[in-house]
Every structure is written in C-alpha cells, then in structure tokens.
Amino acid sequence: MQNKGNSFIFTVLALLLSAVLFIACEDTIEPETFGTLTGRITYADSEAPVANASITTNPPTEAVITNEDGTFTIQNVPGGNVTVTIKKSGFKTENVTIRIREGQTAQVIVPLSRTEGGNRAPLAPGEPVPATDSRNQATTLNLSWSPATDPEGDTTRYDVILFESDSTNGQLIAENITDTTFTAQNLRPNTAYFWQVVAKDNSNNITLSPVWSFRTSAASSNRILFARDTGANYEIFSTDTVEGSSVLRLTNRPGREWRPLLSPSGDRIAFTSNAEGVTHIYTMTPEGRNPQKVTSLPVEGYHNNGLGYCWSPDGGQLLYSHFDILYKVDRGGFGLQPIAQAPAGLHWQQCDWTAQAGGKIVVLATGQNIYNAEIYLMNADGSGMEKIVENQPGRLGSPSFSIDGTKILFTRDISGIEFATSNAQQYGRIFNNHIFLLDLQTNRLTDLSAGKPDGTNDLMPRFSANGAKIIFANGSNDGSGEPAIYSMNTDGTQRRLIAGNGVTPSWN
Known about the structure:
5% of the residues lie in helices and 46% in strands.
C-alpha cells in the first residue's frame, strides 16, 4: 500500500510539473526575425518599368516608391507572411503575399494593369537647356525643358530639383510651376550641378525627367566679400564694386557664417562659423569650396560674435582672440601660439595686423559690460602694448589699419548712451555710431560720418585693397530692416551704396 501511495504522489507531481512546463512554454516569447524585401513593378501591357508606384506592407514597414527602373527595396521586414500592396493612380491596386525568412531577401515581380478610363501620368520632360554636360555656364542661369505632354490633356506642373556635385541633398528650387523655364540664382563658380524636372498632372501622377548636368564658369572677379542674412542664418557672399552687379553665394552651411576675409595671397577666404555650437575659423577657396577648420580653441570672449580675428600680412598665419588671450596659428591649423594677454577684467575682441613699422597689431579689448572698451597697439610679437583709445561713453568697435599702417579706423557711438544690464531690450544698443580715422603719427582724429543719415549707424569699416576707399555697413539704429554695404572716400565724402542686406564687409 505504501508503494502504491508513493506512485500516486509521483504521478500527481509529474502532472503538475508538466503543467508548469507547458505554461512556461506558453509564456516564452519567440525572438523577432527580419529579412529584406525587394521587387520590380512593370506595366502589364508592355512590361516596361513603373516608376513612382507606392509600396506598403502588412504588417507595416516603411512606405517607399519605385525607382525609375521600377525597383524597390525595404529593409528590416518582420519575418513571416507579409502582404505587399502596390498602388499607382490610374492602375488597379495589386496585393501580393510573400514569406519573409530571417536574414534572407525575398523578391516579388508584379505587373500593374490600367483601370478602365484611368488617368495616366505625363510623358517625361526632355530637351534640357543648357544641354547636359554643358560647361562655362553663368552663376545666374535660365534652365528650360520641353513640355511634358499629358495623355488626358491635363495641366502639367513642374518641380525642379538641383544638386551640387559635392552634395547628396537635392534643393527644391521650383515647385508647382506651369512654365517650362526657371532661373537658378546664386550658383557657385566652377561647380558641377545636376538637375531634374518632376512633371505632375491634375491627379498627382508624376514622371521624372532624366538627370541632366552642367558646370559653371570659373571664379568671377568679384572683389567685395560680406555676410548676408538669408532668413535661416548668415552666409558668405561676394559682389563687385558697382551697385546691382552680380552677387554670388559662396557658402551654404549650417550655422552662422560671418566675417569673410581674403588672404593676402588671394588663395583662401577665411570666415567664422558657429556650426559646432561655438565659433571657429574656417578657410575655403575663392569659389567657396573645400572648407577647412583652422582653430582648435574657439573665437570666444566678451561680446565677440566671431569678429575677433584677422590674417597676418603675409597670409601665413591667422591672429584671433580666445577670451583674454590673443593667439597666432598657422593657416593650416598648426603652431598655436599665445602672444598677448588682455588687461585685467577685459577680453580681446576685434583685431588687425599690418606689416608696416616693423609689424603692428591693433586690437579692441572689451569688458563684461559691453560699454567698457579700449583699443590697444602692440608689436607683432605682443610686446610694447600701449593704449591708444581710452574707454569713453557709448560703444567702441572695429579697429583696422590703413594700407600704410599709419592710421587706424574705428567706430564710436557719439551719443554716449549706455543702458544698464538690467534693461535687456536696450542693453548694448548703439544710437549714433560714427567712423573715425586716427592718425598714429599726429594723434589727429577725424570723423568720417558727417554725411551719415540721421537715425542710422555706420559699422565695421575697412580700407579697400588699394587704400583709396573705405567699405562699411550702415543700418537703422532701431534694428529695423537689414544693414547695407556702402563705400566712401577716405575723407568721408561720396558715400555710395554697393549691396543691400549685408554686414562684415571687406574689399579685396
């Protein structure tokens, strides 16, 4: 009897254990597997490839459209049976079920049949102007193509997509236009471009043109560089000395591109950019290509805003401010060397460097209070530092040398108004900013802004490359509108507009 009792207990335990194991197995989650789905969609009546057909799946994955050759690929499709749905306006919707296996690629080939009376896509645009692979095209260029005939006679609309040779991101430069011509502007010199036209009918059937290409002509002779507010940020542009002459866009980067300066040798343009969150110096070709970062320490300090740098007179180095230290660095980014420390409580800001008089540097020093500023002169190695412009009521800014190194341009707000830091909306505002010319030999100070319109500020002056003119920006003192670029004689006469919407100008 005892053995029979034990047998009964063991049997019950075995049954309970089996139930537990069964429940545990029921709760086990099978690992999810994935595969790849590829396919090709063709027209049922011609077996030609179907471009721009919509592909979706159930279970859902990413939605894609077919390429020009009718193919598509979807990665990371869950394993198991997947229903593929193919849609295109004017054609019957097709559903195909296919098995997806882990790590494998499944393929479908699906013909599409037209619906009775279905609307068909326009024919592809053609006959591009300029002809594909054209050379020496202007930087403002009329693009045109032959009309894309629609089988049902629908109105055809066009999008134009433009790619630069070094970019995989196309720019939509025209959308839903009915004309078969469009003017592309602000193209870079000596740059290859690719473009494509998308034709659309009233039912949003679309047809893509072939991809065409052209190359712009070599760099222009534009001598003036400046930064312009493009709405999203600031970019670097060039123009000539005549108002209304060709304006070329040289950068198209994230962040604010600012303060362009051509090297004395003419082979690189330096500029500052805060694309990395802090401001660094970059250089690029005169056409705006091959940007290279130069600085390892950023251009920073009190109220610096990326203005605090300049070229050495021979173009081999760059001088820039990093808080209270003034640094030299080779144009390639090597040989970083501190040369001067600012007076206590001040940070270096804007600077310039001349080879005259044995080599001199002029630099603005600014305090935490933006109105606390002084201008210093020193030797090229940082020695012999002396104050040449004292702190005065109002703001100081923008010191730069004349061509012979005997004079210095700078700006000062002669209103003398200084707002407390607690007045955030007004703090730092300038009301009547004038350009002054300081003769270092005689200490004579000349106001060059006598002809300035009331209610405006003259800003950021620099001499032209031959020293005969001064280029500067002028804008309203209430911040409305955008400053514009002007030139004038070295005595302040003959103020002349060069380009609208511009700051930080230089004249090469």
